[in-house]
Write a structure and sequence with these properties.
The protein is an alpha+beta fold. It is 20% helix and 31% strand. The chain has a 5-stranded mixed barrel with strand order 5-6-7-9-8.
Length: 178
């Protein structure tokens, strides 16, 4: 095997890379979700026919099967249903982070209707807490959902501080990687 082929095969293995990025496997609708959530706090698909708000995004309305869906800004307020911690991941980006400590995630029933899974921006929240969810672009420019307590003032600087604290705005580095 030539040196170039060996190097290429090593670079194909995420565990050997110096910098691991978040997962970037998005469908076309997932990419649209990321694009519409860039300038607003939280936008979701709304059906023009029946008014149903849905997440995750899809080609048809989950309630009436209408294809007439548009993205609209929605309230991120809701109720934390459950929370858990990831201790294992198949994705190198999270593997490196959960070596330090488990990664907290939670399910939130939004007042707008859908239930979403979100990164926990506040670990002191307990199921039954009133929360708010906002979207932010991660290191791959894909929208991720983050939940914090209802009392948090979510101006732009506070959202950025939460994202930085979680480390979602940068890659996961490894010493000695390629």
């Amino acid at each position: 095997m030539r040196h170039k082929d060996v190097l290429r095969s090593k670079l194909a293995r995420p565990s050997l890379r110096a910098r691991a990025r978040p997962v970037k496997q998005r469908t076309a609708i997932g990419q649209i979700f990321s694009a519409v959530n860039q300038p607003v706090s939280l936008a979701m698909q709304c059906c023009e026919r029946c008014g149903h708000v849905q997440y995750p995004s899809a080609d048809l309305c989950g309630a009436c099967l209408s294809p007439d869906l548009t993205f609209r800004s929605v309230s991120g307020r809701g109720l934390l249903l459950a929370k858990t911690e990831l201790h294992h991941s198949l994705w190198e980006y999270f593997k490196r982070r959960i070596k330090e400590r488990p990664w907290p995630v939670g399910s939130v029933q939004l007042d707008a209707g859908p239930t979403v899974m979100a990164h926990m921006g506040s670990e002191d929240l307990v199921p039954g807490s009133k929360v708010q969810v906002f979207s932010h672009l991660d290191a791959t420019l894909s929208a991720v959902l983050i939940t914090v307590g209802d009392e948090v003032n979510l101006d732009r600087s506070e959202r950025l501080a939460i994202v930085r604290r979680l480390g979602l705005n940068n890659s996961s580095d490894k010493e000695g990687g390629f």
